[in-house]
TrEMBL record:
NCBIfam families: PRK10754.1. Pfam families: ADH_N (PF08240), ADH_zinc_N (PF00107). This is NADPH2:quinone reductase. SUPFAM superfamilies: GroES-like (SSF50129), NAD(P)-binding Rossmann-fold domains (SSF51735). The keyword Kinase does not apply. Residues 11-322 form the Enoyl reductase (ER) domain. One of its GO terms (cellular component) is cytosol. GO terms for molecular function: mRNA 3'-UTR AU-rich region binding; NADPH binding; quinone reductase (NADPH) activity; zinc ion binding. Keywords: NADP, Oxidoreductase.
Amino acid sequence: MTHAIRIHEYGGPETLRWDEVPTPAPRAGEALITHKAVGLNYIDVYFRTGLYKLPSLPATIGMEASGIVEAIGEDVTEVAVGDRVAYATGPIGSYAERRIMKADRLVRLPDSLSFEQGAAMMLQGMTAQYLIRRTFEAEAGQTILIHAAAGGVGLILSQWAKHLGCTVIGTVSTEAKAELARQHGVDHALLATDDLVARVKDITGGAMLPVVYDSVGRDTWTNSLDCLAPFGTMVSYGNASGPVPPFDIGILAAKGSLYVTRPTLATYTAKRADLLASAQDLFDVVSSGAVKIRVNQSWPLKDAAEAHRALEARETTGSSVLLP
């Protein structure tokens, strides 16, 4: 037997239960992973609350973890027993001491990275990778806006953008987070109470922005569109404040022939070649020192409810992990 955090109904952090479950055995194409660290991400909240529906209940949530391959099924060539691995794609189920994963969803974790870094960087880091390298490929000399710049994705995205030569505007909720953001590549850290559009207009000399990367959702939607220059791109990749409400597509025309996209990591890493390329790009930029992965919070896996409360209260900064 092993243990996992499961939900039996949708709701608040109190729905997270520490359950004893059978230890699974890998079938053809699968690997059994003994987790060493589990990533904590806001998408976990979406699944817990039911914003994103699960196939059935009870269910183990979680998208990301690192660990060691304990056993493999037939026809597995991607990994071997004893390999250090990490992953950040479906199916959900990482909040567990052990779990089965399809071997083609695993990537080998470089020896230079700890298990904690591996669990903390895969989902957030590969999200940053596709956002800034594929969804809207930021270039040197551009001024860009990153919401929630002191969060897990935000800190990675800000560092990466600065590495590429961008001027980075980042929004944060407190002055302490503003200082953290500045330490990670943000040139202009703005508080949620600031007049965002006016500040962006001042910083850009009225030119406004080619792109906004927004994980907040409902609360920042309108102001984000107003920060864009004509033909600008709104990249809405999260809903921390709630989902973006339905809107008249004509607004995009009125505000300057804008583009809007709602990307997901699952789509960008659906093919194994894309998964490996994304992970390697991330490993390279971290290994070079251009992007630093710091785990600022950790909790025992069995205390996942406490971690969720802190995450939803915006008490966390950077990356967080759960330790089995």
